[in-house]
Amino acid sequence: VNGKTYHKLIIPKSGRGFVFSKDGVLINIYSIKELKKRDPRTVLYNLQVKGDESYCTSMAALHNCQIHRQGDEIRIFTRRLDDVTKQFPEVVGYVKKYVRADDFILDSEAVGFDHKTGKYLPFQAISQRIKRKYNIEQMARELPVEVNVFDIMYYKGRSLLKEPFKKRRAVLERIITPCKKKLVLAKQLVTGDLAEAERFYKEALEVGEEGVMAKNLEGVYKPGSRVGYGVKVKPVMESLDLVIVGAEWGTGKRSGWLTSFVLACRAGNEFVEIGKVGTGIKELEREGVSFKELTKRLKPLIVKEEGKVVRVKPEVIIEVNYEEIQKSPTYASGYALRFPRFVRLRDDKALSDVSSLSLIEDLYKAQK
Q: Is residue 195 in some structural domain?
Protein backbone atom coordinates (compact mmCIF):
# COMPACT_ATOMS: atom_id res chain seq x y z
CA VAL A 1 0.00 0.00 0.00
CA ASN A 2 1.58 3.31 -1.10
CA GLY A 3 4.94 1.57 -1.50
CA LYS A 4 4.91 0.10 2.02
CA THR A 5 4.31 -3.44 3.23
CA TYR A 6 2.06 -3.98 6.23
CA HIS A 7 2.57 -7.20 8.12
CA LYS A 8 -0.85 -7.88 9.63
CA LEU A 9 -4.38 -7.92 8.28
CA ILE A 10 -6.95 -7.80 11.10
CA ILE A 11 -10.36 -9.15 10.09
CA PRO A 12 -13.39 -8.09 12.18
CA LYS A 13 -15.51 -10.87 13.64
CA SER A 14 -18.41 -9.89 11.37
CA GLY A 15 -16.27 -10.64 8.29
CA ARG A 16 -17.91 -7.75 6.43
CA GLY A 17 -15.87 -6.39 3.53
CA PHE A 18 -13.90 -9.62 3.05
CA VAL A 19 -14.38 -12.39 0.49
CA PHE A 20 -12.76 -15.71 1.43
CA SER A 21 -11.66 -18.30 -1.12
CA LYS A 22 -9.29 -21.27 -1.17
CA ASP A 23 -6.66 -19.01 -2.73
CA GLY A 24 -6.79 -16.27 -0.14
CA VAL A 25 -8.78 -13.25 0.96
CA LEU A 26 -10.10 -10.50 -1.31
CA ILE A 27 -10.45 -7.01 0.14
CA ASN A 28 -11.11 -3.48 -1.08
CA ILE A 29 -8.33 -0.96 -0.43
CA TYR A 30 -9.57 2.61 0.05
CA SER A 31 -7.74 5.91 0.05
CA ILE A 32 -7.48 7.61 3.45
CA LYS A 33 -10.09 10.16 2.29
CA GLU A 34 -12.56 7.43 1.30
CA LEU A 35 -11.78 5.43 4.44
CA LYS A 36 -12.71 8.35 6.67
CA LYS A 37 -15.99 8.76 4.80
CA ARG A 38 -16.87 5.16 5.57
CA ASP A 39 -15.86 5.27 9.24
CA PRO A 40 -14.83 8.65 10.73
CA ARG A 41 -13.12 6.87 13.65
CA THR A 42 -10.56 5.26 11.34
CA VAL A 43 -6.96 6.33 11.74
CA LEU A 44 -4.27 4.87 9.49
CA TYR A 45 -1.04 4.33 11.41
CA ASN A 46 2.36 3.95 9.79
CA LEU A 47 4.17 1.78 12.32
CA GLN A 48 7.51 1.75 10.52
CA VAL A 49 10.17 2.68 13.05
CA LYS A 50 13.65 3.91 12.21
CA GLY A 51 16.12 1.04 12.14
CA ASP A 52 13.27 -1.52 12.20
CA GLU A 53 13.15 -1.25 15.98
CA SER A 54 9.83 -1.92 17.65
CA TYR A 55 8.59 -1.83 21.21
CA CYS A 56 5.58 -3.50 22.77
CA THR A 57 4.22 -3.22 26.29
CA SER A 58 1.32 -5.20 27.72
CA MET A 59 -1.98 -3.42 28.27
CA ALA A 60 -5.19 -4.13 30.14
CA ALA A 61 -8.52 -2.35 30.62
CA LEU A 62 -7.58 -0.96 34.00
CA HIS A 63 -7.72 2.07 36.22
CA ASN A 64 -5.32 4.59 34.70
CA CYS A 65 -3.59 6.67 37.35
CA GLN A 66 -0.88 9.28 37.76
CA ILE A 67 1.31 9.04 40.84
CA HIS A 68 2.78 12.36 42.01
CA ARG A 69 5.51 12.59 44.63
CA GLN A 70 7.24 15.67 46.02
CA GLY A 71 9.26 14.91 49.11
CA ASP A 72 7.08 13.12 51.65
CA GLU A 73 3.82 14.01 49.88
CA ILE A 74 2.39 11.36 47.54
CA ARG A 75 -0.87 11.86 45.62
CA ILE A 76 -2.73 9.53 43.25
CA PHE A 77 -4.96 10.89 40.47
CA THR A 78 -7.29 9.29 37.92
CA ARG A 79 -7.12 10.08 34.22
CA ARG A 80 -9.65 12.86 34.86
CA LEU A 81 -7.45 14.16 37.71
CA ASP A 82 -9.75 13.09 40.55
CA ASP A 83 -7.69 12.68 43.72
CA VAL A 84 -8.07 9.05 44.90
CA THR A 85 -5.12 8.92 47.30
CA LYS A 86 -7.34 8.04 50.27
CA GLN A 87 -8.94 5.15 48.39
CA PHE A 88 -5.57 3.47 47.68
CA PRO A 89 -3.49 3.75 50.88
CA GLU A 90 -1.46 0.63 50.04
CA VAL A 91 -0.29 2.21 46.76
CA VAL A 92 1.21 5.09 48.75
CA GLY A 93 3.14 2.48 50.73
CA TYR A 94 4.30 0.70 47.57
CA VAL A 95 5.61 3.96 46.11
CA LYS A 96 7.61 4.70 49.26
CA LYS A 97 9.08 1.20 49.31
CA TYR A 98 9.69 0.35 45.64
CA VAL A 99 10.43 3.70 43.92
CA ARG A 100 13.87 5.04 44.78
CA ALA A 101 13.14 8.73 44.21
CA ASP A 102 11.20 11.52 45.89
CA ASP A 103 10.40 13.97 43.06
CA PHE A 104 8.48 12.54 40.09
CA ILE A 105 5.20 12.00 38.20
CA LEU A 106 4.56 8.43 37.03
CA ASP A 107 1.97 7.20 34.53
CA SER A 108 0.61 3.82 35.53
CA GLU A 109 -2.29 1.38 35.64
CA ALA A 110 -3.68 -0.20 38.80
CA VAL A 111 -5.13 -3.66 38.18
CA GLY A 112 -7.25 -5.47 40.75
CA PHE A 113 -6.67 -9.14 41.50
CA ASP A 114 -8.36 -11.85 43.54
CA HIS A 115 -6.44 -12.09 46.82
CA LYS A 116 -7.14 -15.85 46.99
CA THR A 117 -6.36 -16.97 43.44
CA GLY A 118 -4.12 -14.14 42.24
CA LYS A 119 -6.18 -13.85 39.02
CA TYR A 120 -6.61 -10.35 37.60
CA LEU A 121 -10.11 -8.86 37.80
CA PRO A 122 -12.19 -6.63 35.44
CA PHE A 123 -12.05 -2.84 35.69
CA GLN A 124 -15.28 -2.81 37.69
CA ALA A 125 -13.40 -4.17 40.71
CA ILE A 126 -11.23 -1.05 40.70
CA SER A 127 -14.23 1.23 40.14
CA GLN A 128 -15.69 -0.06 43.42
CA ARG A 129 -12.59 1.13 45.23
CA ILE A 130 -12.57 4.54 43.55
CA LYS A 131 -16.05 5.28 44.90
CA ARG A 132 -15.48 3.84 48.38
CA LYS A 133 -15.51 6.40 51.22
CA TYR A 134 -15.76 4.04 54.20
CA ASN A 135 -14.06 0.77 55.28
CA ILE A 136 -11.24 1.56 52.87
CA GLU A 137 -8.68 -0.70 54.56
CA GLN A 138 -11.07 -3.65 54.46
CA MET A 139 -11.74 -3.02 50.76
CA ALA A 140 -7.98 -2.85 50.13
CA ARG A 141 -7.63 -6.33 51.64
CA GLU A 142 -10.57 -7.75 49.70
CA LEU A 143 -9.69 -6.07 46.37
CA PRO A 144 -5.91 -5.56 46.32
CA VAL A 145 -4.25 -3.89 43.35
CA GLU A 146 -0.98 -4.25 41.47
CA VAL A 147 0.48 -1.02 40.09
CA ASN A 148 1.95 -1.35 36.58
CA VAL A 149 4.18 1.65 35.82
CA PHE A 150 4.65 2.32 32.11
CA ASP A 151 5.91 5.90 31.80
CA ILE A 152 7.38 8.88 33.65
CA MET A 153 6.60 12.53 32.88
CA TYR A 154 8.60 14.45 35.47
CA TYR A 155 11.76 13.64 37.44
CA LYS A 156 14.05 15.61 39.76
CA GLY A 157 12.55 19.01 38.93
CA ARG A 158 12.63 18.46 35.15
CA SER A 159 9.90 17.66 32.62
CA LEU A 160 10.59 14.52 30.58
CA LEU A 161 7.75 15.06 28.09
CA LYS A 162 10.14 15.88 25.25
CA GLU A 163 12.55 13.05 26.02
CA PRO A 164 12.36 9.95 23.77
CA PHE A 165 10.49 7.00 25.21
CA LYS A 166 13.58 4.78 25.49
CA LYS A 167 15.22 7.36 27.79
CA ARG A 168 12.08 7.66 29.92
CA ARG A 169 11.94 3.88 30.22
CA ALA A 170 15.61 3.82 31.26
CA VAL A 171 14.81 6.24 34.11
CA LEU A 172 12.01 3.94 35.28
CA GLU A 173 14.29 0.90 35.22
CA ARG A 174 16.83 2.81 37.29
CA ILE A 175 14.48 3.98 40.05
CA ILE A 176 11.96 1.11 40.37
CA THR A 177 12.52 -2.13 42.27
CA PRO A 178 9.68 -4.36 40.97
CA CYS A 179 7.64 -6.41 43.42
CA LYS A 180 5.03 -8.74 41.93
CA LYS A 181 1.41 -8.07 42.93
CA LYS A 182 2.46 -4.74 44.43
CA LEU A 183 4.36 -2.39 42.10
CA VAL A 184 6.01 -3.47 38.84
CA LEU A 185 7.24 -2.09 35.55
CA ALA A 186 4.89 -2.83 32.65
CA LYS A 187 6.16 -5.95 30.91
CA GLN A 188 7.95 -5.08 27.67
CA LEU A 189 9.43 -6.55 24.54
CA VAL A 190 11.90 -4.76 22.27
CA THR A 191 12.27 -6.71 19.05
CA GLY A 192 12.60 -6.59 15.31
CA ASP A 193 11.13 -10.10 15.01
CA LEU A 194 7.47 -10.06 13.97
CA ALA A 195 6.88 -13.64 15.19
CA GLU A 196 8.26 -12.76 18.61
CA ALA A 197 5.97 -9.71 18.80
CA GLU A 198 3.02 -11.91 17.80
CA ARG A 199 3.80 -14.35 20.62
CA PHE A 200 4.01 -11.48 23.10
CA TYR A 201 0.63 -10.22 21.91
CA LYS A 202 -1.01 -13.64 22.22
CA GLU A 203 0.42 -14.13 25.71
CA ALA A 204 -1.14 -10.82 26.78
CA LEU A 205 -4.56 -11.93 25.53
CA GLU A 206 -4.25 -15.35 27.19
CA VAL A 207 -3.79 -13.83 30.66
CA GLY A 208 -6.86 -11.63 30.19
CA GLU A 209 -5.25 -8.38 29.07
CA GLU A 210 -6.85 -6.16 26.45
CA GLY A 211 -3.88 -6.26 24.07
CA VAL A 212 -0.53 -4.49 23.77
CA MET A 213 0.76 -0.99 23.10
CA ALA A 214 3.24 -0.65 20.24
CA LYS A 215 5.38 2.43 20.84
CA ASN A 216 7.94 4.43 18.89
CA LEU A 217 11.17 4.20 20.90
CA GLU A 218 12.01 7.77 19.84
CA GLY A 219 8.53 9.10 20.61
CA VAL A 220 7.99 11.95 23.07
CA TYR A 221 5.21 11.88 25.67
CA LYS A 222 2.09 13.47 24.18
CA PRO A 223 -0.86 13.59 26.65
CA GLY A 224 -4.18 12.52 25.16
CA SER A 225 -2.75 11.36 21.83
CA ARG A 226 -0.95 8.30 20.46
CA VAL A 227 -0.77 9.30 16.79
CA GLY A 228 2.82 8.97 15.58
CA TYR A 229 4.01 7.82 19.01
CA GLY A 230 2.18 4.58 19.69
CA VAL A 231 -0.88 2.52 18.88
CA LYS A 232 -3.05 0.01 20.69
CA VAL A 233 -2.97 -3.47 19.18
CA LYS A 234 -6.02 -5.48 20.21
CA PRO A 235 -8.73 -7.66 18.67
CA VAL A 236 -10.98 -5.60 16.44
CA MET A 237 -14.39 -5.21 18.06
CA GLU A 238 -16.96 -2.64 17.09
CA SER A 239 -18.37 -0.85 20.12
CA LEU A 240 -20.36 2.21 21.15
CA ASP A 241 -20.51 4.19 24.39
CA LEU A 242 -24.22 4.63 25.18
CA VAL A 243 -26.19 5.97 28.15
CA ILE A 244 -28.97 4.08 29.94
CA VAL A 245 -32.28 6.02 29.89
CA GLY A 246 -34.73 3.32 30.95
CA ALA A 247 -35.23 -0.29 32.05
CA GLU A 248 -37.81 -2.87 33.07
CA TRP A 249 -38.26 -4.65 36.39
CA GLY A 250 -37.44 -8.32 36.00
CA THR A 251 -39.57 -11.36 36.79
CA GLY A 252 -38.86 -14.82 38.18
CA LYS A 253 -35.27 -15.25 39.34
CA ARG A 254 -34.57 -11.65 38.26
CA SER A 255 -37.43 -10.25 40.30
CA GLY A 256 -36.36 -7.14 42.19
CA TRP A 257 -33.70 -6.27 39.62
CA LEU A 258 -33.85 -3.85 36.72
CA THR A 259 -33.31 -5.64 33.40
CA SER A 260 -33.63 -4.96 29.67
CA PHE A 261 -31.85 -1.61 29.73
CA VAL A 262 -32.90 1.08 27.23
CA LEU A 263 -29.91 2.68 25.49
CA ALA A 264 -29.55 6.11 23.92
CA CYS A 265 -27.02 7.93 21.77
CA ARG A 266 -26.32 11.67 21.73
CA ALA A 267 -28.18 13.98 19.33
CA GLY A 268 -27.13 17.55 20.03
CA ASN A 269 -28.12 18.31 23.62
CA GLU A 270 -30.58 15.39 23.76
CA PHE A 271 -30.38 11.62 23.98
CA VAL A 272 -32.36 9.44 21.56
CA GLU A 273 -33.06 5.75 22.01
CA ILE A 274 -31.29 3.17 19.87
CA GLY A 275 -32.14 -0.17 21.49
CA LYS A 276 -32.17 -2.36 24.59
CA VAL A 277 -29.52 -4.60 26.12
CA GLY A 278 -29.60 -7.42 28.66
CA THR A 279 -27.02 -9.82 27.25
CA GLY A 280 -23.58 -9.72 28.85
CA ILE A 281 -24.83 -8.65 32.28
CA LYS A 282 -24.32 -11.27 34.99
CA GLU A 283 -26.67 -12.70 37.61
CA LEU A 284 -23.80 -13.36 40.03
CA GLU A 285 -21.67 -10.41 41.16
CA ARG A 286 -18.44 -12.42 41.24
CA GLU A 287 -18.75 -13.06 37.50
CA GLY A 288 -18.71 -9.38 36.49
CA VAL A 289 -21.14 -6.47 36.33
CA SER A 290 -24.46 -7.83 37.59
CA PHE A 291 -28.13 -6.88 37.35
CA LYS A 292 -27.95 -6.21 41.08
CA GLU A 293 -25.12 -3.68 40.65
CA LEU A 294 -26.84 -1.86 37.78
CA THR A 295 -30.11 -1.79 39.75
CA LYS A 296 -28.27 -0.23 42.69
CA ARG A 297 -26.81 2.45 40.40
CA LEU A 298 -30.02 3.20 38.53
CA LYS A 299 -32.65 3.05 41.28
CA PRO A 300 -31.81 6.55 42.67
CA LEU A 301 -32.00 7.90 39.10
CA ILE A 302 -35.60 6.79 38.41
CA VAL A 303 -37.71 9.77 37.29
CA LYS A 304 -40.85 7.94 36.11
CA GLU A 305 -42.39 4.52 36.64
CA GLU A 306 -45.32 2.88 34.86
CA GLY A 307 -45.93 -0.73 35.80
CA LYS A 308 -42.68 -2.58 35.20
CA VAL A 309 -41.23 0.13 32.93
CA VAL A 310 -39.04 2.88 34.39
CA ARG A 311 -37.34 5.96 32.98
CA VAL A 312 -34.04 7.05 34.50
CA LYS A 313 -31.93 10.17 34.47
CA PRO A 314 -29.15 9.70 31.88
CA GLU A 315 -25.99 9.21 33.94
CA VAL A 316 -24.83 5.60 33.65
CA ILE A 317 -22.72 5.07 30.52
CA ILE A 318 -21.84 1.61 29.22
CA GLU A 319 -19.83 0.19 26.33
CA VAL A 320 -21.85 -2.01 23.97
CA ASN A 321 -20.86 -4.38 21.17
CA TYR A 322 -23.32 -5.33 18.44
CA GLU A 323 -23.47 -7.28 15.21
CA GLU A 324 -25.11 -4.70 12.99
CA ILE A 325 -26.91 -1.34 12.90
CA GLN A 326 -30.37 -1.45 11.35
CA LYS A 327 -32.93 1.15 10.33
CA SER A 328 -35.83 1.07 12.78
CA PRO A 329 -39.01 3.11 13.32
CA THR A 330 -39.22 1.73 16.88
CA TYR A 331 -36.63 4.10 18.35
CA ALA A 332 -36.35 7.89 18.17
CA SER A 333 -32.87 7.66 16.65
CA GLY A 334 -34.29 5.86 13.61
CA TYR A 335 -31.82 3.03 14.18
CA ALA A 336 -31.56 -0.15 16.25
CA LEU A 337 -28.63 -2.34 17.29
CA ARG A 338 -28.82 -5.99 16.25
CA PHE A 339 -27.68 -8.40 18.98
CA PRO A 340 -26.30 -5.75 21.36
CA ARG A 341 -24.10 -7.03 24.19
CA PHE A 342 -22.93 -5.27 27.35
CA VAL A 343 -19.13 -4.98 27.53
CA ARG A 344 -18.38 -2.83 30.57
CA LEU A 345 -19.31 0.24 32.57
CA ARG A 346 -17.65 3.45 31.40
CA ASP A 347 -17.27 5.45 34.62
CA ASP A 348 -14.38 7.24 32.93
CA LYS A 349 -16.72 8.78 30.33
CA ALA A 350 -18.77 11.99 30.54
CA LEU A 351 -22.17 12.49 28.88
CA SER A 352 -20.40 14.53 26.20
CA ASP A 353 -18.46 11.34 25.33
CA VAL A 354 -21.59 9.31 24.52
CA SER A 355 -21.55 8.13 20.89
CA SER A 356 -23.33 10.59 18.62
CA LEU A 357 -26.22 9.97 16.24
CA SER A 358 -24.05 11.23 13.38
CA LEU A 359 -21.52 8.49 14.19
CA ILE A 360 -24.33 5.91 14.17
CA GLU A 361 -25.44 7.18 10.76
CA ASP A 362 -21.91 7.00 9.37
CA LEU A 363 -21.40 3.48 10.71
CA TYR A 364 -24.72 2.39 9.22
CA LYS A 365 -23.68 3.68 5.78
CA ALA A 366 -20.26 2.04 6.11
CA GLN A 367 -21.90 -1.38 6.47
CA LYS A 368 -23.23 -1.30 2.95
A: yes
Q: What is the pLDDT of residues 120-135, one digit of tens each?
A: 776 656 777 777 777 8
| Distances from the Cα of 197 to the Cα of 8, 13, 55, 133, angstroms | 12, 22, 9, 42
Torsion-angle region of 337 (φ positive above 0: left; ψ -120 to 50: alpha; else: beta): beta
Q: Which domain holds residue 302?
A: 239-366
The CATH number assigned to the domain holding 315 equals: 2.40.50.140
Give helix then strand counts, H and E, for the chain.
Answer: 8, 21
One domain for residues 114 and 257: no
Q: Residues 214, 231, 264, 111: is their CA dihedral positive or negative?
A: positive
* Total count of domains within the chain: 2
Domain boundary among 181, 212, 233: 233
Percent helix, percent strand, percent coil in the chain, to nearest 5: 25, 35, 40
Choose among 340, 312, 322: nearest CA to 244: 312
Alpha helices in 177-299 (DSSP H): 194-206, 291-298
Alpha-carbon radius of gyration of the chain: 22
- Identify any residues that bridge with 22 across adjacent strands, giving them in sequence order: none
Report whether pLDDT(52) > 70.
no
Looking at the fold, whether 106 and 250 belong to one and the same domain comes out as: no
Pairing mode, if any, of strands 258-267 and 317-321?
unpaired
Q: Residues 324, 14: contact at Cβ < 8 Å? A: yes
pLDDT at 366: 73
pLDDT level of residue 27 (50, 70, 90 thresholds)? low
159: number of Cβ within 10 Å: 11
Question: According to the model, what pLDDT value does residue 174 have?
Answer: 98
Considering the entire predicted model, what is its pTM?
A: 0.52
CATH number at residue 178: 3.30.470.30
What single-letter DSSP state applies at residue 329? S
pLDDT at 26 over 70: no
DSSP string for residues in 269-322? TEEEEEEEE-TT-BSSGGGSSBHHHHHHHHGGGEEEEETTEEEE-S--EEEEE-
